[in-house]
Amino acid sequence: MVFVIGGRDTTLRVNGRACVSADPELLERLEPVGKPPRTAIVIEAEEVYAHCPKAFVRSKLWDPESWPEPGSLPTAAEVTVAHRRDPELTVAAVEEEQRESLRTRLA
């Protein structure tokens, strides 16, 4: 895994084995937003080190001047419709699903 912090050009790389856990005892300890998550990624770290930032520096990932115009990019709903390839699915339906999810799942 590579951990990225917005605005910084260094990263933390963790090599090892990982699994997804739904162990209730583990999940009860992970409540940063007031409720436990449904699952967690458990990592058995074999190597941990600062990763070379060259790719981030060259990509200008944190430079707003290098970003494309927001209007030139597809919306999250448009991407979802394209990936799901369901001829019955509409952008409006996905936008509604996303609004509902934000309203009911963040609480």
Please characterize this protein's 3D structure.
This protein is an alpha+beta fold. The chain has two domains: 1-66, no CATH class; 68-107, no CATH class. The chain is 33% helix and 24% strand. It has four helices and three strands; from the N terminus they run E-E-H-E-H-H-H. It has helices at 24-28, 54-59, 76-84, 91-105, and strands at 2-4, 11-21, 40-51. Strands 1-2-3 form a three-stranded antiparallel sheet, with no helix packed on it. Helix 3 (76-84) packs across helix 4 (91-105). The radius of gyration is 19 Å and the shape is flat. The model has no long low-confidence stretch (mean pLDDT 88).
Topology:
Elements: E1 2-4, E2 11-21, H1 24-28, E3 40-51, H2 54-59, H3 76-84, H4 91-105
Antiparallel strand pairs: 1-2, 2-3
In short:
This protein has 107 residues and is α+β, with helices and mostly antiparallel strands. The chain folds into 2 domains: 1-66, no CATH class; 68-107, no CATH class.
Mean pLDDT: 88
Q: Specify the overall morphology.
A: flat
Major β-sheet profile: 3 strands, antiparallel
Uncertain residue segments: none
SS content category = alpha+beta
Computed over alpha carbons, the radius of gyration is 19 Å
Regarding quaternary structure, what we see is: single chain
**DSSP E strands, number:** 3
Strand fraction equals: 15-25%
- Could you estimate the helical fraction of the residues in percent? 25-40%
Element-by-element helix/strand order: EEHEHHH
Main sheet: which strands, in order across? 1-2-3
Number of domains: 2
Query: Given the structure, what is the number of helices?
Result: 4
